[in-house]
Specification:
single chain
């Protein structure tokens, strides 16, 4: 981001904070959730519980998973937003801010702990609500000077507890907003259909990629060796087109007819494939959380960049109904909790991921009941 773009963002922050709110009768709740698919998968059951039963609900979400949101939350109006375009296109940003301001909502809920000043805070300011509930954050996530200058005054903030899992944060926020509401899990209804070409459902989903980049991914040759050892009937190896080379590297180790690449799925098709699988294996990535929330047994090969934030899952009382905690295979690391700002790489990969052995994963499968789902 260049100096001009930063200046424009600061200008828009000032305008959002100091422009008078439109004189309209306020009503409705705006929930901001602009994160990745894995975070959204974990948040969806709790989002269901905080939707107002008396007023209109607006969900302002990442445009990438807005189609999922529309099916999971038919009782809310879904507003898609592109965070990247919002940051870099002043015209798009101004229009989104006007649209949010015109909603005239009474309340804004910022359920995400890891929120961003120039996106989420700016949108919350533009909404000019009578009431805002959000998490406290830290200077690690937001620049403290800018946060103090532009933050909403009078917002109610829930405390930040170091080491708390995302599910625990979601549960705590939900209990604060709707103490009597029972947590519902919309993933269990399996609203996303399995594409016709996978009608049998007799496959194991593999997620060899990661939204955090290749440095957080287990080696293709290890995936190939492991999948040959596990002897599942069929593997469906999913990923983005950019991950095709990695997937082809895994397929090269497997006999013909044993596996298939699926890199052309829409997000809705991906959700259908995951939720109807026998089980799933992958890196620390969104597909694992989607599987877990859908009640599909899963195994995650995880490094130590954010131990306890997303993996492993907390105790069962924090799991939404029907969710199945993933089996996690990891290894100790001297630079644990680096937030994936790794300085200890092995051949371009985080050492805490690269040094997990095939034998270690196989042993974890054999010592658990996971092998029953293969």
């Amino acid at each position: 981001m260049n100096i001009k773009q930063k200046c424009l963002l600061l200008r828009d922050l000032a305008a959002a904070k100091y422009l008078p709110a439109p004189k309209v009768k306020r009503g409705g709740t705006l929930i901001l959730r602009l994160d990745r698919i894995g975070d959204f998968a974990l948040a969806a059951p709790f989002l269901k519980s905080v939707l107002s039963q008396e007023e209109k609900n607006f969900l302002l979400v990442n445009e990438l998973w807005a189609p999922l949101c529309q099916k999971l939350f038919p009782e809310a109006e879904v507003i898609p937003l592109s965070p990247g375009k919002f940051l870099n296109d002043p015209h798009y940003r101004c229009q989104m801010l006007k649209d949010v301001r015109a909603l005239g909502v009474r309340k804004v809920l910022q359920m995400r702990f890891y929120r961003e000043l120039f996106v989420e805070e700016l949108l919350a300011l533009a909404a000019a609500p009578e009431e805002t509930v959000r998490f406290q954050t830290t200077s690690f996530h937001l620049q403290p000077g800018l946060l103090k200058l532009f933050s909403l005054s009078g917002a109610e903030e829930l405390p930040y507890f170091p080491g708390e899992h995302e599910l625990q944060r979601n549960a705590r926020f939900t209990a604060h907003i709707s103490p009597e509401a029972a947590v519902e899990n919309p993933w269990l209804t399996k609203p996303f259909q399995l594409p016709e070409r996978y009608t049998s459902g007799s496959y194991v989903c593999i997620f060899p990629g990661s939204g955090k980049g290749a440095m957080c991914c287990w080696q293709p040759e290890k995936w190939g060796k492991l999948l040959n050892l596990l002897k599942a009937p069929f593997y469906l190896i999913t990923g983005t087109p950019a991950e095709r080379e990695m997937i082809d590297g895994i397929l090269a180790f497997l006999p013909p007819g044993k596996a298939e690449a699926a890199t052309d799925l829409t997000l809705e098709e991906f959700a259908g494939v995951v939720s109807h699988a026998r089980c799933a294996l992958g890196n620390d990535t969104g597909g694992i959380h989607l599987a877990a929330m859908s009640g599909v047994p899963s195994l995650a090969i995880s490094g130590q960049g954010q131990p306890g934030w997303f993996l492993p899952y907390p105790s069962p009382e924090f799991l939404p109904p029907g969710a199945v905690a993933p089996l996690v295979v990891t290894t100790p690391c001297a630079c644990s909790d680096c937030f994936w700002r790794c300085r200890n790489l092995s051949d371009g990969r985080c050492r805490c991921v690269a040094e997990i052995s095939v034998e270690q994963v196989q042993e974890a499968v054999e010592k658990s009941n996971f092998s029953a789902f293969l």
